[in-house]
Write a structure and sequence with these properties.
Largest sheet: none
Strand content: under 5%
Helix content: over 70%
Number of strands: 0
Number of domains: 1
Shape: elongated
Order of helices and strands: HHH
Length: 69
Amino acid sequence: MCCRRLYTFHMNEGEHLRDHISQFITLLNDLKNVEDVKGYLLSKDKLDNEFGSNSKLDRQASVFVASRK
């Protein structure tokens, strides 16, 4: 969804440059957050596969760590 917004992103007629740049920075931050979450999930999945960690306590700890970032 973020990628689609990036590809279709354009400056509207009459829009202030400052507002356009602000929206662009917000879009870039959204894309960065998607990469951060994807990386976290991939590393978590790798650890789970390596150590066989599937308990409810482990999942709760993961949610807690993710929410603190």
